[in-house]
Amino acid sequence: MRMAMGMAMGMQMPGAMPGARPAPGCVVHVRNLNPDIIQPDTLFMLCGVYGDVTRVKIMHKNRSSALVQFSLPQQAATAIRFLNQLPFQGNTLGVAASKFPEVALPQHEEDSQLTKDYSKSKIHRFRSQESYKHIHPPCCVLHLSRLPQLFPRLSAPSGAFQ
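Above: the chain's sequence. Below: its structure in token form.
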């Protein structure tokens, strides 16, 4: 059932085992980042809205560029579609398919802070095909859910907030 729903949405269920090589087209190149403030965790959260990010690498010599690896090629394509030309941290992002088939883990100590592996992250959002129904372009409205109730409910007319 889940597989049929995913296929109808143009997505595929992950078929690879953890640690397996990614399919071609899973890596995107993100350009025009703000090199003074960009962090792998920031790109993980930004791109994670459009697919399960497995690795992020900010380029050592050009910190305004990064590679982001997704679990599936369709997730990478969705990120390109929605994030290309997005205003972000004072710049306009350029997001395109990468020529690299995967993001390599660092071999030098100086690169270790710029590359992170998120393949075992517990906050991936696409564990079920239901998540694919909630993909939307970025907008200026922030949706919050599952917040703890800190105050007793206020009685508001017609269900509006006070």
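The longest helix spans residues 73-83.
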